[in-house]
């Protein structure tokens, strides 16, 4: 199988990069943001996952620092899953295991498990961390078989133990979520088969992961996989799914009100739906993508487009009454916030404004690994320089296009990076794809 989500994220990030004049980073991908990570204990602490590591702020977005990939424990075109625990520990799910930082991102240590490829992380209402591992096992007469298992930590990510039995070996795991209103209700999305035989599956547990029931397939022709976007904070039976597809195929946002037994389409998009956010009371849904802009509405009705495709949505997140969005400089920001439902955004992060590596003690992973990389990266990001055409967002991410001269100058570099990134992403699914 192809690296489903990795290809989509790389393609959208690269397409956005074609309008910015930004050089490609050394791992073959344009600088782009793809996920918001919030601290449950500190509203001012926010992390943005990017194609070149983590960007972190402790003051709500007034200033940003960088944690390089090598400090965390990976390199290349990989987009780890992250969660932050109640104590502030940062947990990263990598293609090579679990890593944890307990000092704000300066130092990272591995957590021993029998699994290696971790594809998604989430937390329960009681603070426990749930991790989904899924990797290729072997080939049989019936096709490819996989090792898919949930892991649970109840000691602030110091140790993980298997949660329930291994899943059906014909299933390749994609995402996991726990119902906020019922910690015994778990959902896992997966894929069975390939090509015309591919099925999207949602597994449901009502007893904390000890036993599971399997819902029906919900994929339309040419859709590749289902990703769980969220579970309603008040209704454990209401689950939201995003479908993935090849870049030229439309995708959908689905909602089920009966624990994945039946589905209805909430939004049919032109391209990949990379962003989803749900209000704390479950009454407001936000969804979008780089080809569709931003849509907002209620779970029981239709979603309305509030920002057009000039807002290149690459991720969404919600913290209280503030809607965060990942985008590219073509939209006027790399990360922005909205207090009016997405009608307009205030820029919170530009690549040129990154202060540099996170201030960390000598001997820490960031201090040892990130300094040399920063010397190269700062030039590629244009740190400290004014960027012609990186207009501020005023109307849902609309921004002034960069100078034609800049596009012409870097055109060859961009396309070389596209070839490298797509090639690398195609190889990745021999390891695993990434959902968010």
Describe the structure.
The protein has 436 residues and is mainly β. It has one domain: Methylamine Dehydrogenase, Chain H (7 Propeller). It has 4 helices and 28 strands. A 4-stranded antiparallel beta sheet has the order 1-2-3-4. The chain has a 4-stranded antiparallel beta sheet with strand order 5-6-7-8, with no helix packed on it. Strand 27 and strand 28 (346-349) form a beta hairpin. Helix 1 packs antiparallel against helix 4. The longest helix is centred in the C-terminal third of the chain and has 25 residues, at 404-428.
CATH fold category name: Methylamine Dehydrogenase, Chain H
Which consecutive residue ranges, at least 5 long each, have pLDDT under 50? Answer: 1-26, 386-434
Which homologous superfamily in CATH is the superfamily? YVTN repeat-like/Quinoprotein amine dehydrogenase
Structural class by helix and strand composition: mainly beta
Q: What gyration radius follows from the Cα positions, in whole Å?
A: 20 Å
The separation of the N and C termini measures 18 Å
Number of domains: 1
Mean pLDDT: 84
- Highest CATH level, the class: Mainly Beta
Task: Give the name of the CATH architecture.
Answer: 7 Propeller
What is the β-strand count? 28
**Number of helices, counting only DSSP H or I runs of 4 residues or more:** 4
**Proportion of beta-strand residues:** 35-45%
* Helix percentage: 10-25%
Largest sheet report: 4 strands, antiparallel
């Amino acid at each position: 199988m192809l690296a489903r989500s990795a290809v989509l994220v790389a393609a959208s990030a690269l397409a956005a990069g074609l309008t910015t004049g930004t050089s490609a980073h050394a791992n073959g991908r344009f600088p782009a943001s793809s996920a918001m990570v919030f601290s449950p204990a500190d509203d001012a602490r926010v992390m943005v996952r990017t194609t070149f590591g983590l960007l972190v702020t402790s003051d709500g977005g007034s200033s940003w620092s960088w944690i390089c990939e090598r400090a965390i424990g990976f390199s290349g075109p990989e987009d780890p899953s992250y969660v932050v625990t109640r104590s502030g520990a940062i947990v990263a799910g990598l293609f090579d295991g679990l890593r944890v930082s307990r000092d704000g991102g300066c130092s990272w240590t591995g957590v021993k498990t029998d699994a290696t490829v971790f594809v998604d992380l989430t937390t329960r209402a009681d603070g426990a961390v749930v991790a989904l591992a899924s990797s290729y096992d072997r080939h049989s007469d019936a096709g490819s078989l996989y090792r898919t298992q949930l892991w649970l930590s109840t000691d602030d990510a110091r140790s993980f133990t298997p949660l329930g039995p291994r899943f059906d070996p014909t299933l390749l795991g994609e995402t996991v979520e726990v119902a906020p209103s019922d910690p015994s209700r778990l959902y896992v999305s997966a894929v069975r088969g390939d090509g015309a035989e591919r099925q999207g599956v949602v597994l449901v547990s009502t007893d904390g992961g000890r036993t599971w029931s399997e819902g029906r397939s919900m994929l339309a022709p040419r859709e590749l996989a289902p990703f769980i976007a969220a579970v309603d904070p008040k209704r454990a039976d209401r689950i939201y799914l995003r479908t993935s597809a090849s870049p030229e195929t439309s995708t959908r946002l689905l909602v089920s009100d009966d624990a994945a037994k039946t589905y209805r389409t909430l939004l049919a998009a032109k391209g990949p739906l990379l962003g989803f956010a749900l209000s704390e009371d479950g009454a407001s849904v936000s969804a979008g993508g780089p080809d569709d802009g931003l849509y907002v509405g209620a779970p029981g009705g239709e979603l309305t487009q509030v920002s057009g495709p000039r807002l290149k949505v690459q991720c969404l997140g919600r913290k209280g009454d503030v809607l965060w969005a990942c985008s590219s400089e073509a939209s006027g920001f790399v990360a922005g916030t909205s207090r009016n439902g997405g009608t307009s955004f205030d820029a919170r992060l530009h690549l040129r404004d990154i202060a540099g590596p996170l201030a960390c003690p000598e001997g820490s992973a960031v201090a040892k690994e990130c300094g040399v990389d920063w010397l190269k990266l700062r030039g590629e990001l244009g740190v400290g320089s004014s960027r012609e055409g990186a207009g501020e967002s005023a109307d849902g991410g609309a921004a002034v296009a960069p100078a034609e001269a800049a596009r012409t100058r870097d055109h060859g570099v961009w396309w070389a990076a596209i070839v490298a990134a797509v090639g690398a992403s195609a190889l990745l699914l021999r390891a695993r794809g990434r959902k968010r």
